[in-house]
Amino acid sequence: MIIKRVQPEDRSLFSHIAEDVFDEAIDPDRLARYLADPNHLMVVALDEKGQILAQAAAIVHFHPDKPTELYVDNLGVTPSYHRQGIARRLLTELLVWGREIGCELAWVGTEVDNLPARGLYDHFAKASTFVMYEWNLTKKETRPPHGGRTGLDKFY
Fold first, then answer.
1. Which residues form the domain of 87?
2. pLDDT (0 to 100) of residue 138
3. DSSP bridge pairs for 46
4. Where does the pLDDT of residue 145 fall: very low under 50, low under 70, confident under 90, or very high at 90 and above?
5. Is the model's pTM score more than 0.85?
6. Residue 134 belongs to a domain
7. Three-state secondary structure along 80-106?
8. CB within 8 Å of 152: residues ≥ 6 apart
9. Cβ contact 42:6 at 8 Å
10. Total number of domains in the chain
11. Most-buried pick from 46, 49, 63, 100 (CB within 10 A)?
12. Buried b / exposed e across 47-73, counting CB within 10 Å, b at 16+?
């Protein structure tokens, strides 16, 4: 198995992907934009035939007031290769790559009940308390329960 840092010229790798490595089908235009941005990092695990068996993706975040950080955005391993250390190898490679390009902090979020992911991340860091909010920017938001404004009112 080969762990590879994906570069813009590696788009052809994405024509042969094992089941459940990504959440959705790969869109060629989105892939091209993703890989063209040097602040988007992705590593993949390839079998001997060049099939992608696993992937981990991250984004470099620059701040005017804080150190540069690496946000681990996604990690997926095809089910038949679970529990073989592939995710740990991918995450290690992402963290090393992040350090090489100047990131001083890395972080990831996962669901409370995602025990396999939490077991993996527990090998690297201690969990913190974190609350996440999400907005769907493709459709109108509903009003918050307290009746206030969402901040997105100008889009209505």
1. 2-128
2. 78
3. 2, 52
4. low
5. no
6. no
7. HHCCCCHHHHHHHHHHHHHHHCCCCEE
8. 135, 137, 140, 141
9. yes
10. 1
11. 46
12. eeeebbbbbbbbebeeeeeeeebbbbe
